[in-house]
Amino acid sequence: MTFDLQSLTELSTLEHLVSTQGVEALLAAFDAALAQTPADARVLKEAGTTVSARTLRLLRRAIELDSGFLRDHPEALFQSLYNRMRWYDALDAAPHYVAQGPSPWESPDAHLHRLAASWRRQREAAGGSAWVEALSPLSGSLDGGDQHYSHDKRVEAVAFSPCGKKLATTSSSDEENIHIWDVVTGECLRVLEGHDIGEIQGLAWSPDGKKLASGSRAHDARVWDVETGELLHDFPRQEGRVTAVAFSPDGKLLAVGNLGWRVHLFDMESGEKVRTLKGHQQSVLCVAFHPSGRLLASGASDDTVRIWDMTTGAQVASITTNATPRSIAFSPDGERLAYSVLEGVAIAETRHWTPLEGLWGTMGCTDIAWLGTTQLAALAPREVLVLDAHTRDTVWSRTYFPNTSGNALAFSPDHKHFALTESTSVLVSEVHAQPPPTLKSLGQPVKDLLGVPEAACLIVKRTDQNAVIDAAGSMREFPASSMGGGQESWSITRDGTLAAFPIVNFFDEPRSRAIQLFDLVSLSPAKTLTAKPLEGRDTANRMLHENVVAFSPDGALLAGTVELGVVRLWNVSTGKLLHTLKGPANPVSTLEFTPDGAYLLTGFAESSHLLVHDVKTGALVHQTKVALKPTPTYAMATGAPRLAVGRSSGELALFDLPAGTSRFIQVSNETVVAVAISADGSRVAASDMDSCVHVYDANTGEPLYQVPHPELAYALAIEAPLLVTLSEDHHTRLFDLATGAPRADLEGSTEPQDVVRRRYWEGLGDGPVAFHRRMDPTPIAHFQDALEACYILRDGLVVGHGRTQKDFLYVLRIHE
Fold first, then answer.
1. Which of 166, 413, 553, 671 would be a feasible disulfide site paired with 161, CB 3.0-4.6 Å?
2. Would residue 472 count as lying in a domain?
3. Predicted confidence (pLDDT) per residue in 471-516, tens digit
């Protein structure tokens, strides 16, 4: 069947093709249509939208970006296309981007978002299945030649092969930390075994492209066969971390520089050390061979660049710099040597090793590369620069968001492409091309998400500025002058109006602590809750643990700690101190109200104590020993005043409040690591160190059944008709509560309580995140990235940060 501009801009055609023939056939259909569609061809679609050959190119790129996801989830084609198209050229996309030139939303042909909107109307009218909408733009551009190679950890180094068809990258992963990529397709061709410890900064190809050298933090350099992945040479026990490696132009020698002030030369045929170059007084950071192979340049933190004779090993020259040279490079004709200095890039002529007057680039340049003899490239703190080597003018530049750990840059041998590390990915793009708009969020990595499921909002903690996102998906940034931006412990009311966090009054003598209430509507400080410290209780010298503030379920009360081992209970609206609750003279590790708000549970991890106080009277209702490390091991029934407690003795204790009656069940001879109790308090489950989950009748203590697990089950939930477990093998398992019969085994981590209590719950793993309805193991929808963490707020609003797209903020909505 032949497809054309008309048919390939119909959603029904695309969905039928991908569901019956797959993603490759869909991409091939676009290629065939593009080959026969004139550049001036136009077709009028719904609501006056005109599509063209450019539309086909953009749609093909959108499919290509999500092709891996769509191979496994072809049913998500509309979702993927809509989320890409909707944010491509709509006017409201502009605030999310930094544009370095003409942007898609400024084009008179801005139509892709309108085509997406018409597809959405068609789909909703037809009653399509559940899908996930992105309420903010995703990474990955539909324009230009940008490619992003994703890694599981931070990318350290990057280098093009001599032919330019392959790219080598290293990551901070331990083992399997060297990747080889096909530059044309973006496919990962091979993952080398790598170094035992990651953080590989030294990386270099041999001149024939058959070998790859690498150097790591573990004081070793290695040489690999690129085609087979075989380790050819290992040079351990360097004097310090290996910072740089370089092959000689004939490929016979490898130079290895390290933090131990040395440069070693190794013979590539025998693997033997040929010579050690001594002279630097501090760490060697970069090395480069002269094109003739007769000389080697090395730069070190002793603020010198030294030149060495490869025949004798003698030092030929020393150039004093005004700062540590981070990168050095000889021009292809060997007549000039460029090296980084404090204010930019310096160049010395190699006949007499005399620095030329003036500097190139800007302050803080690193990763220098010659693009022929007339242009010099450098990585500036926020720009990739191409400079005229004679006039010093900037020929081309491209901005980027710097990493806190630093970026690395490499250019292809034909000087047409560059590769730039971006946290856990590598950007490969064309030199001199007009860059597409850059997402601002790529420069604002997420540090943490603070919230509770099904609340009205949550707080996003970023490296630069915090923000609050409400259940409508709106994000507001905290004013730079606002308090609390860097605090570690927060509690938020479910209605999204208030947050609370502990503060320290540094100007008091002695230093004192308080609880700050923060208005999430106005994004400004509200009340400060204080209390006069009790005598003999430390308020300053011992740091209080995190999670030391907690709102009651209705938001009317706040519990918090201002001194060691003492919990205060305040009325939020009046700021009045209601109760002072004393405990052991240890840090409070957990504070939690029972679901009905009647009791406050206070955990002391150091002494393994749990205190239960009556919220109305402040009376101590109960205290018990409990396992609290690494996570609290207790559970409160939501519909009955019954508490289940696990102990390191292997005992499961059940307490009825407030009467204090108890029942004890010996689960194991080792620590109970997790407990759960049903809403009515009639069933209780406990997990032990033998990776077995035991279920009991909570009224009689009678054992009902056991469920063995492949690995330790460290989180549980029970609610008719399900028992839900989460194990260390990152599997979420569902069982029949009445019989223990297995119902589902899902790859990915899920909070078991969310499965039995929430409208929606998510499964987090190494692949696309799956979204489910309450109690249902069958996913209703998937989203393309793996998420490190996420919260599902009210009305299906999802806020998460990426695992594959590291620390990227996602704001999504589940539609049914």
1. 166
2. no
3. 999 999 988 665 454 456 789 999 999 999 888 776 666 667 889 9
User: What span, in angstroms and rounded, lies between the C-alpha atoms of 409 and 513?
Assistant: 47
Q: What angle do CA 780, 782, 786 make, to 5 degrees?
A: 145
Q: Is 605 within a domain?
A: yes
Q: What pLDDT was estimated at residue 486?
A: 47
Tell the residue number behind the tokens 């299906």, with chain if given. 796
Residues of the chain below pLDDT 50: 483, 485-486, 541, 543-545
3-state secondary structure 650-717: CEEEEEECCCCEEEEEECCCCCEEEEEECCCCCEEEEEECCCEEEEEECCCCCEEEEEECCCCEEEEE
Q: How far is CA 427 from CA 169, 259, 268, 424, 802, in A?
A: 11, 29, 32, 10, 17
If you ran DSSP here, which 8-state letter would residue 538 be given?
Answer: -
Phi, psi of 557, rounded to the nearest 5 degrees: -120, 155
Residue 456 inside a domain? The answer is: no
- Give pLDDT tens digits for 430-473: 998 888 898 988 888 898 999 989 999 999 998 778 899 999 99
Burial (CB count within 10 angstroms: exposed 0-12, middle 13-18, buried 19+), residue 130: middle
Among the candidates 625, 653, 684, a domain finishes at 625
| pLDDT at site 512 | 75
What total number of domains does the chain contain? 3
Q: What is the pLDDT of residue 485?
A: 45
Domain boundary (625, 654, 672) is at 625
Q: Which H/E stretch holds residue 28?
A: helix 23-36
Interatomic CA distance for residues 530 and 528, integer angstroms: 6
Q: What is the dihedral of CA 257, 191, 208, 165, to 10 degrees?
A: -120
Give the angle subtended at the CA of 526 by the CAs of 523 and 527, to the nearest 5°: 160
Asked if 164 and 263 sit in the same domain, the reply is: yes
Within a domain: 60: yes
Q: What is the pLDDT of residue 144?
A: 74
**Do residues 484 and 518 make contact, with C-beta atoms less than 8 angstroms apart?**
yes
Q: Which residue range(s) make up the domain with 292? A: 154-366
Do 223 and 123 sit in the same domain of this protein?
A: no
Specify whether 16 is located in the same domain as 87. yes
**Pairs from 763-772 (Cβ < 8 Å, separation ≥ 24):** 763/732, 764/788, 764/789, 764/790, 764/803, 765/730, 766/803, 767/72, 768/69, 768/72, 768/73, 769/800, 770/746, 771/130, 771/132, 771/798, 771/814
Asked if 725 contacts 693 with a C-beta cutoff of 8 angstroms, the reply is: yes
User: 3-class SS at 634?
Assistant: strand
